[in-house]
Every structure is written in C-alpha cells, then in structure tokens.
Amino acid sequence: MASTKCKVESGIQLLARLSKKTSIERFYPIIFENGPKLGDVIELYSEGSASCLLADLICESLMPNDLNGPQASIIVFNTDGKLTLDYIITLAKTKLVKRLKSTNKPCHDYNVINTLLSSMLENLFILEIYNITQFYVSIQNLESFLVKNPNVSLCIFDTLTAFYWDEQNLQKVTKMDSYIKKLLRIIQKVVKDFKITVLYRRPEYFSTSKESIENLKPCCEHTASEQINYRIQIVYNDKDANFINVRTFNGQFKKEFNILDDEIVWL
Hints:
Layout: H1 11-18, H2 29-32, E1 41-46, H3 51-62, E2 73-78, H4 85-102, H5 110-121, E3 124-128, H6 132-140, H7 142-148, E4 152-158, H8 176-191, E5 197-203, E6 230-235, E7 242-248, E8 251-260, E9 263-266
Parallel strand pairs: 1-5, 1-6, 2-3, 2-4, 4-5
Antiparallel strand pairs: 6-7, 7-8, 8-9
C-alpha cells in the first residue's frame, strides 16, 4: 500500500496563512519595478547615510489607499538612532501635500493632512534597540507581534550590523559576511510563515568581500534563508549627481538622484 504524507501546520502557520496582508509590489517602481514580493530580502548599503532613502521608502509604503498608496504596516528595528520619527513625519507631510495636489484634492487643509498623517503613523512601529540582548529578544518576540499585527508587510533593520563587535572576542572573530548570513537565518526562521519583506541596512565597509557591486554574485530569484533578492548601493558624489546601483538576480541598473530639502529627487 502506498504511503501518504500529510503536512501538518502549526497554529502560527495557520494564522499567517489565513491573515490578509497588504502587498507592497509596485509601491516604489523606480527601484523595484514590479516588486518587491512579499518574502523578499533587500540589502541597502552606503559609505554615507541611508536615512534619506529609507525614510522615502517608509513614507511611500505607508501612503493611504485613497492616495494610490499600499497603506502597508511597517516595523522598524532602529539600532543606531540615525532614522528619526521627526524626519519621517516631516517627509510624510511633504509627500501628502504633493500626493493631494496630484489627485486634485485639497492640499492646504491642515485637518485633512493631519488626519491622513495620523492614519499613516498608526501603521508604523519603531523599536528603539540599545544593546545586543534587546536586539535578540526583540527578534524572538517578533513572531508574537506579527500574530497581533497581521497586516505588517515590511520589516526594516537599520542597521543589521550595529552590535557586531559586541559579539566578538580576541580569540575568534566572525567574518562579516558570515555574521550577516547568521542573522538573516535567525530572522527568516521567525518571519518566513508571515511572508514579510525584510529590508536591512549595513555600512559599505561591512563585508568580507571588498569587490565592487559589479563583481558580486547575482542575487537570487527566490529567497533562501540567508540570500537576498535586491542589493542596493547608495553612492554620494560631491562633483556630480548621486546615484544608486541596484542588483537583482537578472540584472543591474543605475539611477541618479539629488537631495533637495532632505528629500530624494530622482533624475
């Protein structure tokens, strides 16, 4: 008699499967085109600050449905304090005014703007992380948080590598690339059933391989436990336009930008 296998799922897996989740596909086509897909992993790195791009991504993710946004929920692990809520609020207000203008809606009514802003902030959860113990405990508690907040679509770590040296000793130092892979495995183990898009930032120097982005191995089409789908490098240029290098499993492209009043302007 042929044996049959029955796949048994946990209560957490059942809840994750039945919960409705906001898709963030096509929310930022300049970088992701038709992506990112739920479950993708995105790496962001730069020699300078990445707060400008991170805040832009967050605000676009939170944008209400009425203004043609995904109205997604986001959780941010803020480990270095460079990405502030005040900055996000200021940028969100600017974007709301522009979006209201583009949809021919009143853009000078402060009550309307504040109401929309409040609805956006209700979907933003920021965890201020100050030490390595708090970091790991917060990751382990992430599963319970996602059960209570099933609409969360994007999980951001700024930065993923903040406590690297706290975990090293003189006898043995973990390779930087191996350290990132280890953390991604831990995170994926927690979030995989919830189909969360994970975005993390690292300093550009934080890599065992010192090859330029053009020589790095392609990203993967399908997310593995420690592999990424998008690798984004931010390059600041004093004499010319700033730009990003974006690498995916099937190619690479470059996009220029300027920063005007702390806001990214794509060229």
